[in-house]
Amino acid sequence: METSISEFGREVFDAGVTVFSVGDAGESAYVIESGCVEVLVGHQPNQQRVAVLAQGAMFGEVALLDRQARTATVRALIPTTLIRIDRTHVEELLGRADPVIQYLLRLLLERFRNKTQGDAAASAAQIPALAEPSPPTDLHAAAVRTLSLAHDLSDAIDRGQLDLYYQPIVRLVDGSLAGFEALVRWRHPQLGVVRPDEFIPLAEKTGLVHRIGQWVLKRATTDWPLLRQRCAATSQGAPFISVNLSAPELCNPGIVESIRDCIASSHIAASELRIELTETVIISSVELVSSAIAQLRTMGVGIALDDFGTGYAGLDYLQTLPFTAIKIDRAFVAQMHDSERSFQIIKSALELSRLLGIATVAEGIEDAKTGAMLASMGCNYGQGYHYARPLPLQDLLGAGTPT
Q1: Residue 64: what pLDDT?
Q2: Beta bridge partners of 36
């Protein structure tokens, strides 16, 4: 999310007023909107000016990031307006950053501190020495794990470490098996099963998501003829296989052709394939995504809006994009018995879908009571541990699944 300057506080300093001094806590950084300041090292009466900063310059950011005390004094030379950037806001942004980036930033700050302390000690011996910070153990471990996974992920496909699990999707009106959602899993030889929410974002950042996406599409459409045999074709609709696509995959200019090739080589009907997209995917590039969706719908491929209700633009997308289904997020389903708000959100989503002629799928159904209530409310499909956990193909073909 982009943050405008209006979200930050403004502070005005008259000429000669100190913004902060050596030893103060570094709770914020500043951008000079107008005016100028001087940067002084040492303590009075032996302070030395080391810089003069004018409009557009930033200062105080190092202490803000590494939580160390101020090592300089900053004072306004003329009436000066500063835009304050609070620590809490920056730490929130850092918390969403890649662990490797966080760790590298910490190391660079530590080296910067060590260098500047050495320089300052030579020119102003009275500046107190600061304790040398230790690298954060948890952050170090997270960074090492991320780097290791990124390296290993590049070989995962070639070494046969990826697999697809399929979670059954049932028709709530009678419990018959309508289809499956394909979910990729990574069986790391040392770490065991790595969660998709850990390695898929990593694959997106490294560009490997395109290879993984192609593998998932090909594998799912190849497996579908066998899985289809376990599904029941009824007057309520033909069976289908759902595959999730990420933002980089759907924005790939060749994605539509790739899907067309997978459908052709597997000899399946395009209408039996459903692509699931989240709002995040659409927001990443509305123009490219809209074009791809339109082409896929022309082919007959179904398009589902995943995690409906958790974003802020779902209704707008239902108006502008030709979705054939929405998936009601498990967060609402889990609370529908105890939260009137969750219940009403689900009720409204189901009514809207009915009016628009869009199918509905409820995720995260954990018990028969929830499934029965959703069916009575008009929800078409459901999936969750009450019906079945995601399973590999061989287990599904050899085990009893809903029929």
Answers
A1: 72
A2: 54
Which option is the CATH number for 161-398: 1.10.3720.10, 3.30.70.120, 3.40.50.2300, 3.20.20.450?
A: 3.20.20.450
Q: Are 81 and 52 in contact (CB under 8 A)?
A: no
DSSP H helices, 167-308, are 196-206, 209-228, 247-250, 255-266, 279-284, 286-299
CA nearest 53: which of 28, 82, 23? 82
Helix (H, G, I), strand (E, B) or coil at 385: coil
Closest CA to 55 of 40, 35, 83, 81: 35
Confidence of residue 107 (pLDDT cuts 50, 70, 90): low
More confident site: 1 or 321: 321
> What confidence score (pLDDT) does residue 116 get?
54
* Tally: H helices and E strands in the chain: 15, 18
Prior bond of 45 cis (ω within 30°): yes
Q: Where are the domains of the chain?
A: 5-94, 161-398
Tokens read off for 57: 């310059």
pLDDT per position as a tens digit, 109-166: 666 555 555 554 444 444 333 333 444 456 566 666 776 777 788 888 888 999 999 9
Q: If you write DSSP's letter for every residue of 61-100 in order, what string do you get?
A: HHHHHH-PPP-SEEEESSSEEEEEEEHHHHHHHHHTS-HH
What topology does CATH give the domain 5-94?
Jelly Rolls (2.60.120)
The single-letter DSSP state of residue 321 is S
Angle, vertex CA 321, rays to CA 165 and CA 169, nearest 5? 25
Which residue is associated with the tokens 């000016």?
49
pLDDT reported for residue 144 = 65
Six token digits for residue 34: 């107008």
> How many whole angstroms separate alpha carbon 371 and alpha carbon 341?
18
- pTM over 0.85, yes/no: no
Does the structure show a pLDDT above 90 at 294? Answer: yes
How far is CA 5 from each of CA 1, 32, 83, 97, 229, rounded to the nearest angstrom? 13, 12, 8, 21, 58
> Is 364 within 8 Å of 330 (Cβ atoms)?
yes
Instruction: List, in order, residues 6 or more apart from 331 with CB less than 8 Å away.
Output: 309, 310, 342, 364
